[in-house]
Amino acid sequence: MRTRGDLATGYLFVLPVVVSLAVFLIGPILYALYISFHHFSFLAPDQATFAGLDNYLKLFKDPRFIRALGNTSLYSLGVVPIQIAIALMLALIVDAKIKGKTLFRVVYFLPTVTSTVAVSVMFMYLFKNDGLVNFVLSKLSIPTFDWFNSLTFALPAVMMMAIWTTVGQFMVIYLAGLQDIPQELYEAAEVDGATPWQRLRFITWPMLKPTTFFILIMSIIGTFQVFDQMYVISKGEGGPQDRTLTVVFYLYRAAFKDFDMGYASAMAFALFLIILLLTIIQRKFFKEETN
């Protein structure tokens, strides 16, 4: 039977976590929500004035925010499906009975644990005018490009980098999902004469739907929060002509370059609502698919 002393001991154990969450997570979120309704700058916090919904309404009139949201959406649409497809393919390869699959796991996962800044600098050298990519293209008699200074190819080049650096993480998650599928299902299907494609389509893919939903949500959140690659590659400008400007990048510029903290906070909560809406839609879609 529990005593008051036992309850007090339990509360004391969870108290540090509750205090940490309140001070470093819940408190800042509530404060950011508060200043999103104000014209606020940390340079002069005592001069903050109530703005109502002005900061939120400004989002719909700001062409740079619309451009940033468009870039972010296009980036997500380009990265997420390719990311998931390659991650699943690599997981199937690594899960197969092949020699040296431990080495393959390490090789595929290595880019994930590499510094994003270091990877960005490496890709800047690979995609520069006299870089390796243009060298290979020229040898194949394919037109070369000034990738990161091109209005057309700057964002796709960053997409390629993002896919390469993050696909290993999702491969590991898919691999865990594959190893959780009962082998009896494959054995029964093999006895019934199912081909490898049929086993993939009717056993592997349906059983991986919860894993795919998790990866899809994590991938969407990650792509909508992209910042560091864009910052390094565009040298903090979002160029050329805002082609690599994303929502979080623009949020950073509004907060720490323009010192418009109220507008930056409104942008952050708008991004939160967009991600929440996409998550709800995906959850509803996968629930209907399961049913």
Automatic annotation (TrEMBL):
Gene3D superfamilies xrefs: MetI-like
Keywords: Cell membrane, Membrane, Transmembrane, Transmembrane helix, Transport
Membrane topology reported for the UniProt record: Multi-pass membrane protein
GO biological process, one term: transmembrane transport
CDD domains associated with the record: TM_PBP2
Major site of localization recorded for this protein: membrane
Domain called ABC transmembrane type-1: residue spans: 69-282
Protein localization: Cell membrane
InterPro entries with a match to the protein in the record: ABC_transporter_permease (IPR051393), MetI-like (IPR000515), MetI-like_sf (IPR035906)
Coiled coil: none
TM annotation in the entry: 12-34, 74-94, 106-127, 147-176, 207-227, 261-281
GO CC term (a single one): plasma membrane
Domain of life: Bacteria
A Pfam family annotated for this UniProt entry: BPD_transp_1
Family: Belongs to the binding-protein-dependent transport system permease family.
Name of the protein in its database record: Carbohydrate ABC transporter membrane protein 1 (CUT1 family)
Taxon lineage: Bacteria, Bacillati, Bacillota, Bacilli, Bacillales
